[in-house]
Write a structure and sequence with these properties.
By secondary structure, this protein is an all-alpha fold. It folds into two domains: about 30 residues; about 230 residues, Up-down Bundle (Rhopdopsin 7-helix transmembrane proteins). The protein has eight helices and two strands, in the order ααββαααααα. A two-stranded antiparallel sheet has the order 1-2. The structure holds zinc ion. The site of zinc ion has 5 residues, from α3 and α8. It is a multi-pass membrane protein. It comes from Fagus sylvatica. One of its GO terms (biological process) is GPI anchor biosynthetic process.
Length: about 270
């Protein structure tokens, strides 16, 4: 992209697509996908303005959630020289960074869909999904021992890394990636749902909402529909459902930090 100009092939593809869609509409046909994507109306050169706005909103929700968690564990809850009592602080920091990274690249990808931005978006999403699976297992099974944590995380990190390398350097296989993401998504939703059912955690009800919200976002990702008025498709709607669940999710994490810290301190005294 020299001099801020779009690549000619890229722009032609867009106008060709819109012309084709116009023809199809006049003939009474339904929209079709082009290069695996629905036709969207661009706004100021942004390909999917609604998805970009929702990604930015998700990013700010994640930042807000992570920041409030940070303030809680380091400034409000008792700690022993800079170290928190809560055993999952470091893991939630990594989760926060991975999710903000993922929403950032989602916003970039939906503004300008080229090979590089697509790979960055997909890779970040897979990394986030893989890490949230690890954290689901570690938290639900209350794995606090460092060696046991490594035993759980190592094979999953190896798998996720291999998958990302495969997508980037061998083949960007949408079907395969969908299967991998749905598998990782379903397992972690099940882990949280079962745990929410058996635990006596005071904030377990928040988990229920997050599980339902996560399931809904996943269904929208699987059951694709063409964009309404050329703007909102299933994928964008999926990005909308994650906004309230993100709020509730970080609220659960903060409750968990308080709950664990207070029960640990009770044991000590
Ligand atoms: Zn997206």
């Amino acid at each position: 992209m020299r001099g801020g100009k779009m690549l000619p092939t890229f722009d032609c593809r867009y106008h060709c697509m819109l012309a084709r869609e116009d023809e199809r509409e006049q003939l009474g046909h339904k929209p079709v996908k082009y290069h695996g994507k629905w036709p969207f109306w661009r706004v100021y050169g942004i390909q999917e303005p609604v998805a970009v706005a929702l990604s930015a909103l998700n990013l700010s929700m994640q930042f807000h959630g992570w920041l409030s968690f940070f303030i809680l564990v380091y400034y409000k809850l008792p700690s022993m020289d800079k170290r928190t009592h809560y055993e999952y602080t470091g893991l939630w920091h990594i989760y926060g960074i991975l999710s903000m990274n993922s929403w950032f690249w989602s916003a970039v990808f939906h503004s300008r869909d080229v090979e590089l931005t697509e790979k960055l978006d997909y890779s970040s999403a897979v990394a986030l999904l893989g890490f949230s699976l690890i954290i689901a297992i570690l938290r639900a099974f209350n794995v606090r021992d460092e060696a046991a944590r490594v035993m759980v995380a190592a094979p999953l990190i190896a798998f996720v890394t291999t998958h990302i390398l495969y997508l980037n350097f061998y083949k960007l296989d949408y079907g395969l990636n969908m299967k991998v993401c749905v598998a990782m998504g379903v397992i972690q939703l099940l882990v949280w749902a079962i745990w929410a059912g058996v635990t006596r955690h005071p904030s377990r009800w928040k988990l229920w909402f997050v599980v339902v919200g996560g399931g809904l976002a996943m269904l929208l990702e699987i059951y694709d529909f063409p964009p309404y008025q050329g703007f909102v498709d299933a994928h964008a709607l999926g990005h909308a459902t994650t906004i309230p669940s993100t709020y509730l999710w970080w609220s659960f994490i903060r409750d968990d930090a308080e709950f664990r810290t207070s029960s640990l301190l009770k044991k000590i005294h």
